[in-house]
């Protein structure tokens, strides 16, 4: 497994399906996709932390009604030390950008997962 693939595994918590599928096509393509994960999620001086990046993708997932993804991202947020208030703020931003109907659609599952994860 390449270093990029290990980085992608660390970020996602599991091997990304895109990297697995790409490997079936071509090892170089798989490494390139894994490198993309590494580049996006790398922590840079004066840049966003992994926690901040996860808060952003969580907000986007919620606002786009990708509730299953949002639930998975919550698990990563817990790992990276996000607070319950940070998650709630992200949910309110998702309501602002995605609309109140989206908010009512994604909130029950998110709150259930927050309780399960003891946020």
UniProtKB/TrEMBL annotation:
Residues 30-104 form the Carboxymuconolactone decarboxylase-like domain. One of its GO terms (molecular function) is peroxiredoxin activity. Transmembrane segments: none annotated. Gene3D superfamilies: AhpD-like (1.20.1290.10). This is Carboxymuconolactone decarboxylase family protein.
């Amino acid at each position: 497994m390449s270093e990029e693939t290990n980085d992608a595994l660390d970020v996602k918590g599991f091997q990304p399906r895109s990297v697995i599928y790409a490997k079936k096509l071509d090892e170089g393509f798989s490494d390139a996709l894994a490198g993309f994960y590494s580049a996006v999620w790398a922590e840079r001086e004066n840049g966003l932390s992994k926690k901040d990046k996860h808060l952003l993708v969580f907000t986007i997932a919620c606002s786009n009604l990708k509730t299953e993804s949002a639930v998975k991202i919550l698990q990563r947020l817990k790992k990276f030390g996000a607070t319950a208030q940070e998650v709630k703020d992200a949910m309110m931003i998702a309501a602002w950008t995605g609309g109140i109907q989206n908010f009512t659609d994604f909130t029950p599952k998110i709150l259930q997962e927050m309780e399960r994860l003891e946020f």
